[in-house]
Amino acid sequence: MKLLQAYLDIHSSCNYKCAYCYRSELETAGNRAGPMPLEVFEKLTPILKRMCWSVSLSCAGEPLLYSHLWDIMDVVNRELAGLDVTLVTNGFLLNERAQDILAESIVSKVSVSIDTVNPELYSRLCGCAPGALETVLRNVESFGSKLRRGTGWPKLFVTAIAMKSTMPHLADLARRCCGMGVDGIKIQWLVPWKASLESEVVAHDDATRAVLREVASILAAGRVYFEYPNAPAGEKIRSLVQGFRFYRNKPGYCLFSLAKVANVLLKTPCRLAGTHLNVYQDGTMHACASSNGPGVSFLTDDVDEQEKRMRKAIAFLRRGGSYPECSKCRFYQ
Ligand SMILES: C[S@@+](CC[C@H](N)C(=O)[O-])C[C@H]1O[C@@H](n2cnc3c(N)ncnc32)[C@H](O)[C@@H]1O
Ligand code: SF4
Description:
The protein is of the alpha/beta class. Helix content is 40%, strand content 14%. The protein is built from eleven helices and ten strands. Strands 7-6-5-4-3-2-1-8-9-10 form a ten-stranded mixed sheet, sandwiched between helices.
């Protein structure tokens, strides 16, 4: 049973400086910036194929900075077919060439992070040039129309973080997405991983629910799928059922969703317990998204031994185990 979703960065540097982004914390923690060496990626793919139902090619960096995108996507296409492979990007470098490579790949979902369509707010939040938003929107629009003429894969999503400053513009984002060939919008709540972000956290009150209802009705009229965390049970079931069509590896997605529900019911200390792998530029793998517990390197010769160690760590977390550092985790409890 492959319940694991792996997260790695094909490129762990970034061309933006988003005020809220947790990558600055990872950088401070000493993680290596830059592209994942092709030979490391090639060594990892057979292991990922054995252990995972899904692989995300971006975690805390900008994947489209990868200068030989075709080379790495060639490995993805050969080695990871059958898995759900996803890519999250800020969209600035989603130019014609990147669009063609992705449109012809086995990638099942490309998500472009756009928190707001207000140009000043966008450049302030993302620490980028004032014209950047227009470039991103143009890229998404042309990718959307390319995909509509193609096989129906990959699916094109927009991801937005709901923050106090972005909430007043969320309906405008929804309206804009309806005309861009986007398949779905996913809202995520801001994770206030540092104290200065607390003031941007949105309350789950009537005003927030009213904005979400307006966004939902705009997107329903435009036949664009909508998903947000902590939705009421009925909404959650609807989005789970409707969201099914955006996965290529449907059995994998079902088992993974059940494992996450089991974590909630069994009250495991970590909500991702036993479903998550983080892989770093040097090929080190952790069964924890905050890199607690043993780190295993697959660049050695004793791959079987390393895989055994990794599976043991996964089983430990799945049984409700935790590491001393888990009590300080701000992300997944
Ligand atoms: C770290 S980025 C990496 C991929 C790419 N550079 C991008 O921005 O889409 C992955 C996702 O994490 C989200 N993210 C970053 N910091 C966050 C935070 N503090 N709370 C919630 N989501 C966050 C981003 O908005 C983005 O959708
Ligand atoms: S573009 Fe993505 S990785 Fe880069 S700073 Fe923004 S959220 Fe972080």
